[in-house]
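Fold it.
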Amino acid sequence: MTSDDPKLPRRLSTADERAAFLARATAVPVTAPRGRLIFALDATASREPTWDLACQIQGELFSAAGAIGGLEVQLVFYRGFGECKASPWVGDPAALLRRMTGVRCLGGRTQIGRVLAHALAEARARPVNAVVFVGDAMEEGIDHLCHLAGQLGLIGAPVFLFHEGDDPTARAAFTEIARLSGGACCPFDGRSADQLRAFLGAVAAFAAGGRPALDHYGAAGGAAAAAVRQLTSQVRRS
């Protein structure tokens, strides 16, 4: 059928043309957006032993997320006198490992507020699926930290804090930051690589694929299942 109206097609598509169009459309790869995770570490002097541990096992962040759709990670650390740095976003474990192994711990006070403020700025510019923080102390005003944590919670950037040691002030602060942001706070033994590896893998799965991916990660059993149980008992359900 033809038409003199220039706004209408000159003729209808044939069955063969429609089939060819559908074949071309289905051949175009559909790429899901990669999850984005900020991996923040206290690099003050007291954390030197577990900084080395984190360098060894950070690949779990990528391996746990790779089967789901991948993960982009930004390394953030503070140390010394007012030093707080953030790396570019990277999508492979080797690049992140190179950056981490180039850092040495230095004495100084905690700068958790700067980490949370940075995470908030990043999440406002482009969604951040999770913020991981590993530390053993808190030497700042808790009210300011809680305010930042609440803002992160409002925009959907939960904070997952892994508390090394038994400092009660840090434990209370980390727990409240996790609650207000919609994340979780878990203690870990710096001597146990498997424990921290499982925690990081669980959060990476969550960042890459949400609660379904987190549940799937825990189905492996063992340390992974234990880590997922600890996280899911706290993570705010969407």
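Confidence is low (pLDDT under 50) at residues 5-13, 18-32.
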